[in-house]
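Exercise 3.2. Students should predict the tertiary structure of the chain below and write it as structure tokens, then compare their answer with the key that follows.

Predict this chain's 3D structure.
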Amino acid sequence: MTTFSLKLPKSLLREIAQAAEARSVAKSAVVRDCIERVLRRGKKTKNRLTCLDLMGDRVGSFHGPRDLSTNRNHLVKAIATHANRGRKNSR
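Answer key:
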């Protein structure tokens, strides 16, 4: 294998050392595994977006029951409240 050096903050280095100790492997194996997982995940998600990917910023932004589909009135009220939020002049 080829050697590659990089600079890491102490906090991240501590986390890597803890993960390596927990897995009983070398720190370099932990870093390699993390890099491989991120790069592979990036290739898969480029072609496929999930509903959560598209609506992720909206998750948890409405108040009401956990499942708004149980009562349509809750859903309508939540949407109306969110639509009016942040407007300076409501006419």
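Discussion points: Helices lie at 10-23, 27-47, 51-55, 72-84. Residues 27-47 form the longest helix (21 residues).
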